[in-house]
Amino acid sequence: MVELLEEVLVEGAKEWEHVLVGFFVGKKILFRSLQSVLNKKWSAVGKFSIHTAENGIFIFKCESELVRNWILDNGPWDVWGVHLALRLWERDLPPIRSGFTKIPVWVRLMNIPMEYWTPKGLSHLASVLGTPLYMDLATESK
């Protein structure tokens, strides 16, 4: 009986293996607005569908691992100026906000002395907030 249950769970998980779970930080976004904006931003890469869960959680079901990873790798994303926090779907973890342990955000550093305008210097300053991941092209080219 336990083996059968595990088989059912494994089979069911295959349907959701290319899913992202997300929510908007600080504000609610209407479903139609979300769908319209993200279709413009993501649809060139591949197909995806958006589903709602409870408490402002959205499920983004991608047609492939490639699409899912592109979305994750090319963020952070926002809709109407509101940050969309995303994470990978995990089996046995309900789609709730507590599954989010990290949220990538863009940070604008202002009035930085010129001697810090190196990748190492800016990375050092940004590390106060967390682990720096990327630098935009304009900043990188000084």
TrEMBL record:
It comes from the Eukaryota. Pfam families: DUF4283. Residues 13-92 form the DUF4283 domain. InterPro entries: At4g02000-like, DUF4283. PANTHER family: DUF4283 DOMAIN-CONTAINING PROTEIN (PTHR31286:SF165), GLYCINE-RICH CELL WALL STRUCTURAL PROTEIN 1.8-LIKE (PTHR31286). This is DUF4283 domain-containing protein.
